[in-house]
Amino acid sequence: xxxxxxxxxxxxxxxxxxxxxxxxxxxxxxxxxxxxxxxxxxxxxxxxxxxxxxxxxxxxxxxxxxxxxxxxxxxxxxxxxxxxxxxxxxxxxxxxxxxxxxxxxxxxxxxxxxxxxxxxxxxxxxxxxxxxxxxxxxxxxxxxxxxxxxxxxxxxxxxxxxxxxxxxxxxxxxxxxxxxxxxxxxxxxxxxxxxxx
Length: 197
Hints:
The chain is an all-alpha fold. The protein folds into two domains: 8-59, Homeodomain-like (Arc Repressor Mutant, subunit A); 64-196. The chain is 74% helix and 0% strand. The chain has helices spanning 8-31, 38-45, 49-55, 59-63, 67-81, 90-104, 112-124, 126-149, 154-174, 181-193. α9 packs across α10. It starts with 7 loop residues before the first helix and ends with a helix. Keywords: DNA-binding, Transcription, Transcription regulation. One of its GO terms (molecular function) is transcription cis-regulatory region binding. InterPro entries: DNA-bd_HTH_TetR-type_CS, Homeodomain-like_sf, HTH-type_TetR-like_transc_reg, HTH_TetR. Pfam families: TetR_N.
């Protein structure tokens, strides 16, 4: 992976972005998602609205701020670790995606406190749930593309990536708290593995 040099400018941008995310999560935790405006987030983060929109298209995007970077890491892992063409081996494709998720550590960019807020907001808001499902769908399609590149047949690639998405959604639904999420995720993947037995 080629990383641009870590310039002062890049660090300042990252810091500004992180400050906005942190301010938004505080406000969402206090007031719920719908009652928080972009203006309020900008004010809490001590930036202008213009600065907010330089980083995020809307307040929903703040919640899924690290999504595409996470998907990039997962796809890179799949391409890096597939030691042979996957062909029609659904089990191998799923295992690879499970490992990729662990390495990309979804929610890792989010502190446990932030993930707890996200899970609560998703329970409360149907709009957010649809946006979240859309981000998951987009990720599944990108992962399917990576699996195909790693030599999986298309049907296996698409099914594996949607099955992995189903495991994630299942874990979110069943985890009592964000800390329980990884164990529930393992459990869901384990249940799928029992299918052929």
